[in-house]
Design a protein that fits this description.
This protein has 436 residues and is of the alpha/beta class. The chain has 18 helices and eleven strands. It is globular and about 60 Å long.
């Protein structure tokens, strides 16, 4: 099933709610998930889970920012709308510590929890207990058009600098033909533009807070980061970039309108899929850029499945999680759609499999994941854990507001200095109110 056909099928799945008639089901679970390609692909296979178990599945499929709002509201108010939530490395340890999630400490021996990549299992645990199972794991990297790079007379290094990326982006830009040298996230959101910019800022020597939790958004390093980003997007980015998140940039790249795209490693299977991408045969990969200060601009993330403590379908939810994040599910997708389209980044055994090692982006994805260090994310010391986020409860709200200011700067409604001044003030206010 191509991604385009899977996207179309999602509408029908959501309209019908369950994948089989209710009379054929012993029980039913409701899952909230993000509208990313791998999650949509999973919905296309859910009828097999229902056939095997008698458990029906209802899907609530949402855009990334909206998903985060809905599941956060539901779990903090104990709304009970969902039996499984798609969450990530930011929420899982915090919500697990609060007792809001069911521990996944009794998964079956066949599931082989020890096969999960340590970076993924660690980021989805609290005090050594797993609270969410990774459906796929990711870092971020550069995806680029090899034909445009060659036309520009350049060769992409495996570990490029931001200066090289800027020069290459300008050289590849051809606005008369709707080709832009680089596509980067601009849509406001703590997991959208701020995920990208926080990871980028690490390479420039910036940090959200100093060792005493004092906000640092008025620092020279943040100013250098934001001005570089804004100048680059003005010189080589697409129009309307302040509205572009992961899915929008994916579409632009697949249409051949981006020379480079720095984003989630999971996108590699979509940009190299000839059913969906017009440039599938001319895509290369490299590590996210650096500035020579010892940090690359890559993040670490997993979209994972977790069970809220208020569910009445705990056993059924665990059955689904074991099915959807298992080795067998990976084999199922590989058999039907090829190894390039399996969910990446979650299991050690996948990267030991010779069939998967032959996939052109497998090695760079693993290198990117292994190079990400959430315990030491910045050049200068910080009191928080996390690369593209600070793992404190207040971060999501703060970074959402900061993201709006930076998106406004990208749209030309204010300067970088104005955006960072407002960001510093609101972050100081929020952190003081929270008692830091």
């Amino acid at each position: 099933m191509s991604l385009k056909r899977a996207l179309a099928a999602t509408t029908a799945l959501n309209l019908c709610a369950a994948v089989v008639p209710a009379a054929a089901q012993d029980s039913s679970i409701t899952i909230a998930t993000v509208n990313n390609g791998d999650m949509i692909r999973m919905q296309g296979y859910t009828d097999q889970f229902t056939a095997e178990t008698g458990i029906g599945v209802e899907w609530v499929t949402l855009e990334e920012n909206i998903l985060r709002q809905r599941v956060t509201t539901d779990i903090t108010t104990r709304g009970g709308q969902f039996d499984i939530m798609t969450i990530g490395m930011y929420e899982t340890p915090i919500w697990g510590a609060n007792g809001w999630l069911i521990p996944l400490d009794d998964l079956s021996a066949e599931y082989d929890v020890d096969d999960l990549l340590p970076a993924m299992a660690g980021g989805l645990s609290h005090d050594g207990t797993l609270y969410a199972a990774p459906f796929y794991g990711e870092s971020s990297m550069i995806m680029y058009r090899t034909d445009l790079m060659e036309k520009a007379g350049l060769e992409m290094p495996d570990d490029p600098t931001w200066e090289f990326v800027r020069d290459a982006a300008i050289a590849m830009t051809d606005r008369d033909n709707d080709v832009y040298g680089i596509c980067l996230r601009g849509k406001a959101g703590w997991g959208e533009n701020m995920a990208f910019l926080t990871a980028m800022s690490n390479a420039f020597g910036a940090r959200w807070f100093d060792e005493n939790w004092r906000p640092q958004l008025d620092s020279d390093a943040w100013s250098e980061t934001l001005n570089f980003y804004l100048d680059l997007m003005e010189e080589a980015g697409p129009p309307g970039a302040s509205s572009n998140g992961f899915n929008e940039n994916l579409s632009l790249f697949q249409q051949g309108k981006c020379g480079m795209w720095i984003d989630a490693t999971v996108a590699a299977s979509f940009v190299t899929n000839p059913d969906d991408s017009a440039v599938a045969d001319s895509v290369g990969f490299a590590l996210a850029p650096n500035t020579g200060k010892g940090r690359n601009s890559n993040w670490l993330w997993a979209w994972a499945l977790a069970i809220p403590a208020g569910t009445n379908q705990q056993a059924e939810a665990k059955q689904f999680i074991e099915w959807a994040t298992s080795k067998d599910y990976i084999e199922l997708v590989a058999e039907n759609e090829g190894w390039a389209n399996v969910p990446p980044g979650a299991r050690t055994s996948l990267y030991e499999n010779p069939d998967y090692q032959a996939v052109p982006f497998a090695d760079m994805t693993l290198k990117s994941i292994l190079s990400a260090d959430p315990l030491n994310p910045t050049v200068e010391p910080v009191p928080y854990v996390g690369i593209q986020f600070a793992a404190i409860p207040e971060f999501a709200g703060i970074a959402t507001q900061v993201g709006q200011e930076i998106s406004a700067a990208l749209a030309g409604r204010q300067s970088a200095e104005e955006a960072l001044s407002k960001a510093q003030a609101l972050t100081e206010e929020e952190m003081e109110a929270a008692g830091y």
